[in-house]
């Protein structure tokens, strides 16, 4: 979890808006209870990768059948708002570790408060393909322009089995 000891100013992913968000808005989002930032930091507490989580709900009418089945009008879910790795640390598996942490968090939340799915708004087509590696599926398969994806909490165990070496 992001704490005062972590240095955010040098964080440099290839997406400037994500760097700026970490620098300027992560603290106020935490204080306002609108987004929690999880980080991986180096030995000097410099953030090298981060992800943000918030509670959300999706309107049942916007959900594909697998997500909507048997749910109330608002489907409870966990939202991954942002995910980024400093360019100097890309390809080391850091973002993958954050995603595995997020999926474990969704399982824990589901046990205590019910969380039917994890939702992601992918940044672009590349990021969309990246999330599909974890089993995320299109929220609206009919809309080619939509970059929203979901993974049922009930399917997380399968992803963890596949992605975590035993
Ligand atoms: C996407 C991003 C978070 C990945 O971070 P990372 O720490 O380098 O990721 P990891 O090291 O955990 O994973 C790298 C793996 O993803 C694969 N990968 C990278 N881009 C991919 C893509 N577009 N589609 C499919 N796989 C991809 C790599 O080939 C590598 O695979 P391997 O483990 O089999 O070798 C990082 O590139 C980034 O910050 N990009 C800019 C912001 C962004 O797009 N964020 C996504 C927000 S929705």
TrEMBL record:
It catalyses: glycyl-tRNA(Gly) + acetyl-CoA = N-acetylglycyl-tRNA(Gly) + CoA + H(+). It comes from the Bacteria. It holds the Pfam family Acetyltransf_1. Keywords: Acyltransferase, Repressor, Toxin-antitoxin system, Transferase. InterPro entries: Acyl_CoA_acyltransferase (IPR016181), GNAT_dom (IPR000182). PROSITE patterns: GNAT (PS51186). Residues 1-161 form the N-acetyltransferase domain. This is GNAT family N-acetyltransferase.
């Amino acid at each position: 979890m992001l704490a005062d000891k972590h240095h955010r100013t040098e964080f440099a992913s290839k997406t400037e808006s994500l760097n700026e968000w970490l620098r300027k808005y992560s603290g106020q989002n935490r204080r306002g209870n609108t987004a929690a930032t999880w980080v991986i930091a180096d030995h000097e507490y410099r953030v090298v990768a981060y992800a943000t989580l918030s509670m959300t709900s999706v309107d049942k009418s916007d959900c594909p059948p697998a997500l909507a089945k048997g749910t109330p009008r608002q489907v409870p879910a966990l939202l991954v708002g942002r995910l980024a790795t400093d360019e100097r640390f890309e390809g080391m598996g850091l973002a993958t570790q954050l995603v595995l942490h997020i999926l474990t968090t969704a399982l824990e939340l589901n046990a205590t408060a019910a969380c039917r799915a994890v939702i992601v708004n992918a940044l672009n087509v590349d990021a969309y393909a990246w999330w599909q590696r974890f089993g995320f599926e299109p929220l609206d398969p009919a809309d080619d322009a939509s970059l929203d994806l979901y993974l049922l909490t009930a399917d997380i165990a399968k992803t963890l089995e596949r992605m975590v070496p035993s």
